[in-house]
Design goal:
Elements lengths: L14 H8 L2 H11 L3 H4 L3 H10 L1 E5 L4 E3 L7 E7 L2 E4 L12 E3 L4 E2 L11 E4 L3 E7 L23 H5 L3 E4 L2 E4 L13 H13 L6 E10 L9 E10 L3 E10 L2 E12 L23 H10 L5 H9 L7 E5 L10 E8 L7 H11 L19 E12 L9 E11 L2 E10 L4 E13 L12
Antiparallel strand pairs: 1-8, 2-7, 3-6, 3-8, 4-5, 4-7, 9-10, 10-12, 11-14, 11-17, 12-13, 13-14, 15-16, 16-18, 17-20, 18-19, 19-20
Helix pairs in contact: 1-4, 2-4, 6-9
C-alpha cells in the first residue's frame, strides 16, 4: 500500500450498519451524539443526524498520511473524531498568501467545495480518526427546513412555519413575523420565546432537549422587521448544555433568553400536583365556535353583534377550548385545553418550541381578571417568563393549561402556570411577571416609559 494513502483503504464498512448488526445501541447513540456536536450538522433536523449516523464510515490515518490531495476527487464530508490535520494551500500559491492551518476535533472538510476535486492538501499531523459521509449521502446535508428533511414548510402547521428560522452563520439565525400569523401591537412574546428557543436548540446535539428557560423582554418588537437571533454557547457538558440568545432589531437587543438543555436520563420521580377535574376537550367549544355563538345569540345587542361580525377574525395557530364559562372571568385563574393546529414534524425539540410559543397566550391577562370592570381599558406587557419541562410533550395533542395569579401589586401582575397531558402527568411548570396598567386617556399626563 502507498503510505501516502495511509490506512484509508482499511476503512470500516458502513459504521451505522455495523453497530446495528452488533446490537450496540449505546455505541450508535455515541456516534449520533458526536455528530450532533458538529456545528455544520446542528441545524439539521434530528432525523437527518440519525440517518447520517447510519451512513458514516470510520477511517484511520497515521501521522504524515494524505487525507485529501489537491486536484483529486472529493470522497465526501470528512469530520475529525480524534487527532489533528493540517490544511495546505496549493503549491503554486505565493508564499505570503499560503495560510496553513490545523483542523481539530469536530472540524470538517470536503463539503461546500466549488468542484468535485479538492483545492488544497489535507495531511494528518498526528494519528487521526475521522468520520466520513460518502458523497452519495450528501443529500442528507440539504434539508427543506430546520425541522424536516423532506417536506416543504407549507405542508406543515402555521406554527412550524413561524418557528422556522434561516441560518445566516453558525449561531446566527433570522426569524420573521409571518403575514398570516396573528398580529398584535408588537411582536408576540410567545413568538420571541419560541423562535429564540428554536435558535438555541439548533446549536446543541439532538439528544439534549430544553428542560428550563428564562426570558427577559426588553423592548417591544416591530412586526414588520426581521429578528436576528444571536446564540452564545455558554457551556457544553456531558449531560447539560447552556445557551444565551439575544434577539435584535435595528441593532438593539429587544429580548434575551437563557436556556438549559439536558440529555435524557433516569432518576428519582414523584408528582404531587394533581390535574383539576375538568371536562375533556371534546365536550368544549373552541374559540371559533364561541365567536359564532356570540354573533347569533339574541341576548347580545345587535350593535355588538354587527361590530363583531365586521371585525377581521384570524384564527390563532393554537386551538384552545376553555373549561370555564364567562361567569368565572373575574377570578384570578383560567383553565383551558390547547394544541397546535395542523401537522407538526416529528421532532421533540420542535414540540417544546411550540409549547413555549403557546405558553404566552392569555397568560399575563389572568392577573387582570379580578380588576375588570365595564369600560376599563388596560395596557399590559410581559416582563419576564420562565418554564420548566418535566416530561416529554406532544404539542399536537391536547394539553391542559392551568393558570393562576396569586398576586398583583405596583403595576405588576404575577402568574403561575402548570400544563398537564391527558394522562394527568405534569409536563411543564411556568411563571411570569407582567406590567399591567390602566390605559392612558386623552389629555392624561403621560406616564414614564418602562
Amino acid at each position: 500500500m502507498d503510505r501516502e494513502e495511509g490506512k484509508a483503504a482499511q476503512s470500516l464498512p458502513n459504521l451505522g450498519a455495523t453497530l446495528a448488526n452488533s446490537g450496540d445501541d449505546c455505541a450508535w447513540c455515541a456516534v449520533t451524539e458526536f455528530l450532533g456536536q458538529v456545528p455544520l450538522l446542528q441545524c439539521l433536523p434530528g432525523s437527518s443526524i440519525r440517518r447520517i449516523a447510519d451512513a458514516v464510515q470510520l477511517k484511520h490515518y497515521e501521522s504524515g498520511d494524505y487525507i485529501a490531495r489537491e486536484g483529486e476527487p472529493v470522497d465526501g464530508l470528512c469530520i475529525i473524531l480524534d487527532g489533528q490535520a493540517e490544511v495546505s494551500a496549493p503549491a503554486n500559491t505565493e508564499e505570503e498568501n499560503r495560510p496553513d492551518y490545523v483542523l481539530n476535533k469536530y472540524d470538517y472538510f470536503g463539503y461546500g467545495t466549488n468542484s468535485s476535486v479538492h483545492q488544497v492538501n489535507v495531511t494528518a499531523v498526528t494519528k487521526l480518526t475521522c468520520f466520513v459521509l460518502p458523497s452519495q449521502y450528501g443529500h442528507l446535508l440539504q434539508t427543506k427546513t430546520i425541522w424536516n428533511a423532506e417536506e416543504a414548510p407549507e405542508n406543515h402547521s402555521l406554527l412550524e412555519q413561524i418557528l422556522h428560522l434561516e441560518k445566516l452563520e453558525v449561531d446566527i439565525f433570522r426569524g420573521l413575523t409571518l403575514p398570516e400569523a396573528p398580529q398584535f401591537r408588537q411582536v408576540f412574546g410567545g413568538q420571541l420565546i419560541g423562535q429564540a428557543l428554536a435558535a438555541a436548540s439548533k446549536t446543541v446535539d439532538c439528544l439534549k432537549l430544553v428542560h428550563s428557560l428564562h426570558a427577559i423582554f426588553l423592548i417591544a418588537g416591530d412586526n414588520n422587521m426581521p429578528i436576528i437571533y444571536q446564540v452564545n454557547r455558554e457551556r457544553d457538558g456531558t449531560s447539560f448544555a447552556t445557551r444565551k440568545v439575544e434577539a435584535k432589531q435595528k441593532g438593539l437587543v429587544i429580548f434575551t433568553l437563557i436556556v438549559s438543555f439536558q440529555k435524557e436520563e433516569l432518576g428519582f420521580e414523584h408528582q404531587a400536583a394533581i390535574m383539576p377535574a375538568v371536562p375533556p376537550p371534546e365536550q368544549l367549544l373552541n374559540m371559533e365556535e364561541i365567536r359564532e355563538r356570540r354573533l347569533t345569540d339574541p341576548r347580545f345587542p345587535m350593535q355588538y353583534r354587527n361590530l363583531a361580525a365586521k371585525k377581521k377574525f384570524v384564527p390563532w395557530p393554537i386551538e384552545m377550548r376553555f373549561c370555564q364559562d364567562s361567569g368565572s372571568q373575574h377570578k384570578p385563574s383560567l383553565y383551558y385545553w390547547f394544541k397546535a393546529r395542523g401537522k407538526l414534524s416529528d421532532d421533540p425539540a420542535l414540540h417544546r418550541c411550540v409549547v413555549a410559543y403557546a405558553s404566552d397566550l392569555l397568560y399575563s391577562g389572568v392577573s387582570l381578571n379580578p380588576h375588570r370592570e365595564r369600560g376599563l381599558k388596560t395596557y399590559s406587557l410581559s416582563l419576564d417568563h420562565s418554564m420548566w419541562f418535566h416530561k416529554p410533550v406532544k404539542a399536537d395533542d391536547w394539553l391542559l393549561y392551568v393558570i393562576d395569579s396569586p398576586s398583583a401589586h405596583g403595576g405588576r401582575g404575577f402568574v403561575t402556570g402548570r400544563m398537564f397531558n391527558r394522562q394527568g402527568e405534569l409536563v411543564v411548570s411556568l411563571t411570569q411577571e407582567a406590567l399591567i396598567r390602566r390605559a392612558k386617556t386623552p389629555g392624561q399626563t403621560p406616564r414614564p416609559k418602562l
